[in-house]
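Entry 14. Structure prediction run on the chain below.
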Amino acid sequence: LKQMKLNKNLTRTLINIYDVVYKQFNYSLKIIFANKFIYFFAAAIIFFLIVVSVNLFGNSKLDIGSIYYILIFPGILLVFYPATFGIQNDDDSRMLENIFAIPNYRFKVWLPRLIMIYVLVAVLLLLLALFSSFALLVVPVFEMAYQLMFPIFFLGSLAFAISTIVKNGNGTAVIMVLIGLVFWISAGILQGSEWNIFLNPFDMPSDMNEVIWNSVIVKNRLYLVSGMVLTILYGLFNLQKREKFI
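Output returned:
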């Protein structure tokens, strides 16, 4: 009898855990795809299709480095909205107080949501890279998507961190656009440097040794991963100060 009671209790516990996880997953998906996400998604796809069409019917010569630049902008658009407007969407749906009532809410709600966003963007990048490989130029699809994830996920993490300071989606969007412009302008100055946020690993400078270039790529990716971790931790730390959000 004791064993049967233990089994029943275990079953109930597992059902409760599944129910909580399912509801949280379902709610996070609604927040990710809420409101204006469809416009950012549509803009990313339309931009990608326009660039593909121009290159298909034009006389421009493409290489793997060109495909990297073609894919990076749609990727940024895909991660931009959910990372920037997530907290505001929680506030608009009046769920912030409920979220703050969950024990360890930062690691049970917002961190899993970020992971969901990045998984979704990674899948879409794989699909876009695969389509590019068929339509434009044969590229290493998985490596292309993998390399694109570093700058895109870093910018997404930075947007998340800034949104915890500004606490407003539109304000965060303005700041991120300005920061993005600074990064893009500096990319021309820092071309071939490990400090270039948009470093293209498929576009090795003609005056650089391959061994040195590989070292630059590794350092650049380590810096981006470190920046991503630090900005996520900073954002989660800010979310600890719940009185500033309610």
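DSSP finds eight helices and no strands in the chain.
Filed with the rest of this week's runs.
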